[in-house]
Amino acid sequence: MPSRRRWKITSTMNNLKNDTLIRSLLRQPTPYTPVWLMRQAGRYLPEYNRTRKEAGSFLALAKSPALATEVTLQPLARFKLDAAILFSDILTVPDAMGLGLYFVEGEGPRFERPLRDAAAVARIAPPDPSGVLRYVTDAVSEIRRALAGSVPLIGFAGSPYTLACYMVEGGASADFRIIKSMLYSEPALLHRILDLNARSVTQYLNAQIEAGAQAVMIFDTWGGSLSHAAYAEFSLAYIHRIISELRREYDGARIPSIVFTKGCGTWIEAIARTGCDAVGLDWTIDMGEARKQIGDRVALQGNLDPAVLHSSPNVIRAQVANVLNSYGAGSGHVFNLGHGIVPTTRPESVQVLVDAVHELSAAPHL
């Protein structure tokens, strides 16, 4: 089996031509607010759709390091974004566990073998990042080489609970009836799944760091569907564990971590206590109030409503200004959407957003 040492890439912050993202995540001074966007490489871009058609399917696209590199770089060719994010999917980890991931057009991801009992759980184990997930780490390394130090590369994974939602439900769910039934009737079984996922995600993110990721993000998309007590026990505790076991430095560079829980409004202080460097916020939270609560401990990322991008350029600029003004002057803010770009967004609207962030944030940071 190839040694993980061969993934090593020099990654000191000083080698970056644009290090505003890393500095903001570490709450260091920056000349303006950096901006990147969740799903910035996606179906709203015609060039992405052409590449996906060439690949034949989403999975074929994601599993080709060369094509994943191509689509990761596509939005940076259009917009002056301050970071690239690995093109992949949070479900690569359960797919590598042998659950049989496939996609149904118009319906999203599905698993052939969902986890419904102890016997099914006993058959899975954390996948080796240097084996079945090697295509991801190869993509990370290839993207880093292609970026040539222009901007940092963000790696990512799904949270243990969010992954479990798909693994237990067998796909997307409107009410999470199956996993919540397991949570309340067989909590020990769900904890076994979450433990496996936490070990898998920790190994996976550390492998991405060794392959060249300069920051990492945990997407807890469905943690917000839990009750307050259940969130603490079944989602946050495992995120905390992952953060505590992540590589904080690699090859002389500090590697910041971001945690994003959609619907996290009542938990942002608890998230900040996990040891992450930044908390991602959805659009339901006031940026200024969040800064008052936790901005002296972590950076904040977010949090424009993605629906704003369907408005006119003047409205987009005004809404960008509202988010920036709510945060206020000073470092520690990474501009982003409160969730991913929707496919019906016009690329021209993204251009307006990126330009507005750079233009309107420059003065407060001088």
How is this structure best described in words?
It is a single chain. By secondary structure, the chain is an alpha/beta fold. The chain has one domain (4-365): TIM Barrel (Alpha-Beta Barrel), CATH 3.20.20.210. It is built from 15 helices and eleven strands. The chain has a seven-stranded parallel sheet. The longest helix has 25 residues, at 187-211. It starts with 19 loop residues before the first helix and ends with a helix. The model is unreliable at 1-12 (pLDDT under 50).
Q: Summarize this, please?
A:
The chain contains 15 helices and eleven strands. By secondary structure, the protein is of the alpha/beta class. It has a single domain (4-365), classed as TIM Barrel (Alpha-Beta Barrel), CATH 3.20.20.210.
The average pLDDT is 93
Question: Low-confidence runs (pLDDT<50, min 5 residues)?
Answer: 1-12
| Main β sheet profile | 7 strands, parallel
Terminal residue distance: 51 Å
- Report helical residue fraction: 40-55%
CATH architecture: Alpha-Beta Barrel
Assembly annotation: single chain
CATH topology group: TIM Barrel
Shape: globular
| CATH top level class name | Alpha Beta
Query: What sequence of helices (H) and strands (E) makes up the elements?
Result: HHHHEHEEHHEHHHEHEEEHEHEHEH
The total tally of domains equals: 1
